[in-house]
Amino acid sequence: MSDQPLFSVRNPWFGISVGVTAAIAVLSAVAGLIWLPLAQPDLKLAGVWDAICSAAGVPRAAVQEASIKPDFKTSNVVMTSEMLTKADQVSIGRGATLAQRCAICHGPQGVSDAHSPNLAGQFAAVTYKELNDFKTGARVSVVMSPFAAAMSDQDMKDVAAYYAFLPRVPSNSLDTGRPAPAVVVTGAPMRNIPPCGSCHGDIDNKAGSPWLGGQSAVYIKAQIEAFASGARRNDISEQMRNIARQMTAEEIDQVAHYYEAQP
Amino acid sequence: MLTNKRLIAAHFWLAFIVFGAALVLGAWQMFVRSPLNTWHFNPEFYYRSVTAHGSAMGYVFPTLIAMGFGYAITEASLAKALVGRRWAWAGFFLVAIGAVVAMIPVSLGLASVLYTFYPPMVGNPFYYIGVVMVVVGSWIWVALMVINFVIWKRDNPGKPVPLAMYANVAGCLLWGWTAVGAALEILFLILPVALGLKSTIDAGLARVFFSWTLHAIVYFWLIPTYIAYYTIFPRAIGGRLYSDAMARISFIMFVVVAMPIGVHHLFADPQVGAGFKFMHSVFTGLVALPTLLTVFTICASAEIASRLRGGRGAFGWIGALPWSNPIMLATALSLVMLGFGGAGGLINMSYQLDATVHNTQWITGHFHLIFGGAIVIMYFAIAYDLWPHLTGRALDSFGMMCTQLWLWFIGMIVTTFPWHYVGILGMPRRMAYYDYANPAISPQALSVTMSAIGGFILLLSGLLFLLVLIRGQFGARGEAGAYRFAVPLHMPARIPLALNSFGLWLALMVGLTVVNYGFPIAQLMALNETSVPAVYVGAGR
């Protein structure tokens, strides 16, 4: 028996092993690709070939029902973690000139006490995204929308690069000894709230999440409340709205004052 | 006779040093995420630690054991010095350097991607380069084992290749082919993104490639254990192997069906069709066969040994087994853990049942029971068995060895049974923090505390194991004689060509891979717009 060539139908080891393996493969394919899909009434298959394509994972056109469009504009900015991290000097310089019109609220050095966001040292991608959302109408503000409407894409990138270039200035309420609220460090898993720090610094920073240290508590609180009420809805995939809706009034207050006291 | 003792000992020592370090991390992880710890640390450290623990335990430790044991088997079973000694050392250093290269970015927090490194998470390129170096180092071993196998067969035409070597080469071939999936994933999908040449990645295709490696790697870890069952255990208890042919068929079945089954890790993934998931599920079920064959053959071999020692009765022979022998004890405990772990595995491989436990702590419990329990306890046994031959000194602290093995068994059961249970309660895996004060989670607190205690028992057992080995380096000098493997009840003079070669089985392995993976991979490669932006771990720090 062992003298026969291995790859030969006369060798029983070859015939049996290949036969059994092929039989199992064919049977499982027939069951998985034809029988089981056809046995499921919900799949609404047109026939055997349709069943095979469906079970093999060939993309099929979705059922043609009109998708429900939101009655408001959504943000069209795609965020990536490397986005706008490498600014050139020309862009920063142009941004500095353009930013003069922002200084009345955001301060000549990107810092102000007007309860508007402090932009000095803010990530360029964040400033760019907000300007873009003001321009497209995904975020609405009586003050900001008219400013953004007139800006070109390059203008927005330049302004964002300039503010990212400015050094962060510690706020007047700086208090680094202040203990971090639980929602910042651990979130609230059972309410689906991730830790604030996992996106907004402290623990990790995720693309598109602003640096919150030193921002006005009044501003932070107003924005979380706007997310919770749905007045602000330019957060991608509704992530901040889902979080803000689950936060208690006390937590919102704690978070706002905690971040104001951070560098 | 072992000639390259330093080479073999180097592999085992490095493996166990890595194991010891990763074990400490594991115990720390068990502690910090249990109710025993009040929450006061950066959760990022937890993910760093899990990445280091998983990469060390999954990639470095078993690979070094398989390599070291493979070299020992080659020299002892073929009764000649290893061909390619310098290449073997090169492979060893590649693995060692690769492990360091991978661990530096992990410790710096630049690659907390966990050992499965699922895209779109992308970490520091050196992590992946380190993993590739480990794999390439092990491929050198694969090549050397095949070369030694071929040379021996050429010099001994018609003679059956010793079972240990045959099984060893089966493991090599399985690993050589199964590592290709992750290698393709790293080289063509992840590294271009990690190096900054691209910013998007086809996460679905990457996960399919990884599943190609992820399941069969378990059988690569398992093969040394099975070799120990078949070729060390019967000899160590003074018996004979029940059937040589049955053993070969088991290893052959692993080669053929262990690989085209990995999609059962992707049951919840949308990018693979349900039909292919079903096919992989069927073939996963088939892998239970070689294990059932093995359990039968090993129990039969134990019965032979017991009856030779005077054991009687339908079950009375079990009491007559040499229970104070560490190899006997390790094998029995290993089979118990394999039984429980295997039963859990049958649940994981069932397309519908998996839905209830997918990505819960059940899965963590399952693979710790199988790998950490059934497999690693036999790695201990292999080391105990081989140590006197490597050191030329007696290893006679049998009481310590048995205590260590019992502690490992108890620790693993106490760790993994509550893990399975909280998994059924729905506790997700891979989370640094659970709010046990919450009424919905608080019923899990007791079980998680128990499993953390199990983790400390395992740590104690691991330290005891290292202590036994260190004592072995300073024991009384004594020649251990030639290293022998178990002799079958009926020594085959001639065996069928199919059971003495791998051509047919390799063809079936590759053929089944094409059948089960060909279409899903080809389709994902052909589809447009399947890439997503990469999420760089540690970016912005």
UniProtKB/TrEMBL annotation, chain A:
<dbReference type="GO" id="GO:0046872">
    <property type="term" value="F:metal ion binding"/>
</dbReference>
<feature type="domain" description="Cytochrome c">
    <location>
        <begin position="90"/>
        <end position="167"/>
    </location>
</feature>
<keyword id="KW-0479">Metal-binding</keyword>
<keyword id="KW-1133">Transmembrane helix</keyword>
<keyword id="KW-0349">Heme</keyword>
<dbReference type="GO" id="GO:0009055">
    <property type="term" value="F:electron transfer activity"/>
</dbReference>
<feature type="domain" description="Cytochrome c">
    <location>
        <begin position="182"/>
        <end position="263"/>
    </location>
</feature>
<protein>
    <submittedName>
        <fullName>Cytochrome c553</fullName>
    </submittedName>
</protein>
<dbReference type="GO" id="GO:0020037">
    <property type="term" value="F:heme binding"/>
</dbReference>
<dbReference type="InterPro" id="IPR036909">
    <property type="entry name" value="Cyt_c-like_dom_sf"/>
</dbReference>
<feature type="transmembrane region" description="Helical">
    <location>
        <begin position="12"/>
        <end position="36"/>
    </location>
</feature>
<keyword id="KW-0249">Electron transport</keyword>
<dbReference type="InterPro" id="IPR050597">
    <property type="entry name" value="Cytochrome_c_Oxidase_Subunit"/>
</dbReference>
<keyword id="KW-0813">Transport</keyword>
<keyword id="KW-0812">Transmembrane</keyword>
<keyword id="KW-0408">Iron</keyword>
<dbReference type="InterPro" id="IPR009056">
    <property type="entry name" value="Cyt_c-like_dom"/>
</dbReference>
<dbReference type="Pfam" id="PF00034">
    <property type="entry name" value="Cytochrom_C"/>
</dbReference>
<keyword id="KW-0472">Membrane</keyword>
TrEMBL record, chain B:
<dbReference type="GO" id="GO:0009060">
    <property type="term" value="P:aerobic respiration"/>
</dbReference>
<keyword id="KW-0812">Transmembrane</keyword>
<feature type="domain" description="Cytochrome oxidase subunit I profile">
    <location>
        <begin position="1"/>
        <end position="510"/>
    </location>
</feature>
<dbReference type="GO" id="GO:0020037">
    <property type="term" value="F:heme binding"/>
</dbReference>
<keyword id="KW-0472">Membrane</keyword>
<feature type="transmembrane region" description="Helical">
    <location>
        <begin position="172"/>
        <end position="197"/>
    </location>
</feature>
<feature type="transmembrane region" description="Helical">
    <location>
        <begin position="245"/>
        <end position="267"/>
    </location>
</feature>
<dbReference type="GO" id="GO:0004129">
    <property type="term" value="F:cytochrome-c oxidase activity"/>
</dbReference>
<dbReference type="InterPro" id="IPR036927">
    <property type="entry name" value="Cyt_c_oxase-like_su1_sf"/>
</dbReference>
<feature type="transmembrane region" description="Helical">
    <location>
        <begin position="367"/>
        <end position="384"/>
    </location>
</feature>
<keyword id="KW-0679">Respiratory chain</keyword>
<dbReference type="GO" id="GO:0016020">
    <property type="term" value="C:membrane"/>
</dbReference>
<dbReference type="InterPro" id="IPR000883">
    <property type="entry name" value="Cyt_C_Oxase_1"/>
</dbReference>
<protein>
    <submittedName>
        <fullName>Cytochrome c oxidase subunit 1</fullName>
    </submittedName>
</protein>
<dbReference type="Pfam" id="PF00115">
    <property type="entry name" value="COX1"/>
</dbReference>
<feature type="transmembrane region" description="Helical">
    <location>
        <begin position="445"/>
        <end position="470"/>
    </location>
</feature>
<feature type="transmembrane region" description="Helical">
    <location>
        <begin position="86"/>
        <end position="114"/>
    </location>
</feature>
<feature type="transmembrane region" description="Helical">
    <location>
        <begin position="52"/>
        <end position="74"/>
    </location>
</feature>
<dbReference type="InterPro" id="IPR023616">
    <property type="entry name" value="Cyt_c_oxase-like_su1_dom"/>
</dbReference>
<keyword id="KW-1133">Transmembrane helix</keyword>
<feature type="transmembrane region" description="Helical">
    <location>
        <begin position="497"/>
        <end position="519"/>
    </location>
</feature>
<keyword id="KW-0249">Electron transport</keyword>
